[in-house]
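Exercise 7. Given the encoded structure of a 240-residue chain, write a plausible sequence.
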């Protein structure tokens, strides 16, 4: 599976079709969070990553990916400066192509990267300070102690934690974690599950460090929760 993370739709579709014709399975991602979600939930062989992505910038997507996976990444960018190249490679990109590039040239690089990474090691654990979320065994530990989460609680936590900093509305969480809509399930379901997950993983559920409330919008996972402590707080929740 090759993920084409590119916000320019024409570009994304053309690149995807080209790789499909070359025999690859392709998934498109129009923004940073979508790219992270695909890698978190699907076995991916390679990510073509545009650096200028909405939602979560490509460099941040790359940094986040490198915390949890060795998946090969080829950065595709219009930022043709030495600095941007070096930054991309520093962050752990396997290769770098500057727009405009030809699709056959890109495919040759993809083949080269896939050959190099013939044996790829997937580390499915997300680790943020003393919180570790292992997506293979579906186990969560806090300060080395295992925490018992229900299947849905685990899915919710893993989903939020795989795209740190991104705010998800309750509607989006219903869609992604429950595979449901408001027509089927009340948004309060999300609020209640967030409350339970906080009770289980947060040191102080009333002043959560990891799962932050974006007032009136939804929730986001704070990757810096380990060092920064609680900034916004969620005392009183958000009144929905
Ligand atoms: Ca772009």
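Solution.
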């Amino acid at each position: 599976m090759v993920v084409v993370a590119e916000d320019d739709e024409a570009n994304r579709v053309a690149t995807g079709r080209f790789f499909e014709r070359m025999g690859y399975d392709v998934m498109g991602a129009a923004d940073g969070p979508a790219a992270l979600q695909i890698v978190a939930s699907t076995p991916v062989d390679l990510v073509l990553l545009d650096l200028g992505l909405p939602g979560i910038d490509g460099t941040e997507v790359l940094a986040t990916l490198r915390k949890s996976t060795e998946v090969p990444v080829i950065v595709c960018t219009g930022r043709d400066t030495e600095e941007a190249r070096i930054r991309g490679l520093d962050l752990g990109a396997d290769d770098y192509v500057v727009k405009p590039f030809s699709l056959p040239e890109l495919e040759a690089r993809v083949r080269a990267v896939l050959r190099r990474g013939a044996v790829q090691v997937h580390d499915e654990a997300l680790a943020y300070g003393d919180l570790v979320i292992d997506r293979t065994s579906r186990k969560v530990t806090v300060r080395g102690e295992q925490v018992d989460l229900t299947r849905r609680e685990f899915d919710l936590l893993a989903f939020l934690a795989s795209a740190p900093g991104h705010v998800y509305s309750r509607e989006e969480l219903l869609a992604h974690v429950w595979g449901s809509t408001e027509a089927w399930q009340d948004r309060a379901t999300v609020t209640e599950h967030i409350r339970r997950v906080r009770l289980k993983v947060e040191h102080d559920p009333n002043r959560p460090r990891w799962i932050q409330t974006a007032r009136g919008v939804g929730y986001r996972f704070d990757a810096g929760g380990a060092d920064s402590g609680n900034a916004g707080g969620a005392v009183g929740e958000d009144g929905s």
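Remark. Residues 7-8, 50, 52-53 surround calcium ion (CB under 6 Å). Students should compare their own answers with the one above.
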